[in-house]
């Protein structure tokens, strides 16, 4: 929950916490840090106090990569359990997993917790209709959907709530208060993962330079981790090899959320180009939050739900055939004003999208 360490999934957790905290007393189990993010009305609980916190709770909500021990604590204390759980597909490609003597065995750590949550959760949250459809099929296979469930609701709203990627009112207020600070015209706003194509932005910037287009780009989250170091190193090498150090910047220092708001607010477009693959087919990119919040276009690939959202909601440019040249064309169109700004989308407020879940939770707790 550190301002400088939180990523997309953590920011979603925080903003949903802020929204739920308007109606419920919320406690977040996380490591203490000197720069804790704004949790709204919620309290922070250190991991050492996880068991008494879970024992005292009415309900326990788990997000990405849940802790198996805490799941079992919630089961043992007979709590209402809620999970936003996605199949751990991307984890199978992590360098830290592949480097193990037994990658399949190592992946079982993630898979075991995911399966257990599918078995014991009373309710599930999803980020998109695609994720909802995938989850419903999985729940059926696990025997978690029964004929009485279908009689109760053909839409299974008592079992699954879709809470699309968005932002909270506190996130909105923080964004509005941020003073724009130009880092670069185009920002790679998410992680630099192997299932993305971050090198394409470097190559596109070389194309723009050769065309005489004055433009700059930056990778906001280039502080290396075990699973991103090799990809970040390849991007740094590409920048040096193309002599683009004056046009393309890698932000390798930790980035506080408040400073991040300043940079994304001053950019002309956000870039996230992925490779074809099951992770991108089934997952919604959390950094689309930036476009919904700031109203600045995203340039994206067509591989999956994220590209579909950009196309259907008019959020920017979808590269139908991603290449350095097509990306350069899109960025040049942004520079010339040919790409309309999508504007802020207030329908993405978590206070609105979590309301149905909060109603379900109130009713579930009343029923005991």
Write the SSE topology.
Blueprint: H1 8-20, E1 27-29, E2 43-45, H2 50-56, E3 59-62, H3 68-76, E4 80-83, H4 95-98, H5 103-120, E5 123-126, H6 129-141, H7 147-152, E6 160-162, H8 169-177, E7 186-188, H9 199-211, E8 217-219, H10 229-241, E9 248-250, H11 257-266, E10 269-272, H12 278-282, H13 289-294, E11 298-300, H14 305-313, E12 316-318, H15 324-335, H16 350-353, H17 355-367
Parallel strand pairs: 1-2, 3-4, 4-5, 5-6, 7-8, 7-10, 8-9, 10-11, 11-12
CATH class of the largest domain: Alpha Beta
Give the neighbour order of strands across the main sheet. 9-8-7-10-11-12
What are the low-pLDDT stretches, counting only 5+ consecutive residues below 50?
Answer: none
Q: Please indicate the percent range of residues in DSSP E strands (runs of 2 or more).
A: 5-15%
Taking all Cα atoms into account, the compactness measure Rg is 21 Å
- Given the structure, what is the number of helices? 17
Terminal-residue CA separation = 31 Å
Name the CATH architecture of the largest domain: 3-Layer(aba) Sandwich
CATH topology description of the largest domain: Rossmann fold
Secondary-structure element sequence? HEEHEHEHHEHHEHEHEHEHEHHEHEHHH
Structural class: alpha/beta
**Largest sheet: number of strands, sense, barrel closure:** 6 strands, parallel
Determine the fraction of residues in helical runs and give it as a percent range.
40-55%
What is the averaged pLDDT score? 96
- The count of strands amounts to 12
**What general outline do the C-alpha atoms trace?**
globular
Task: Compute the number of structural domains.
Answer: 2
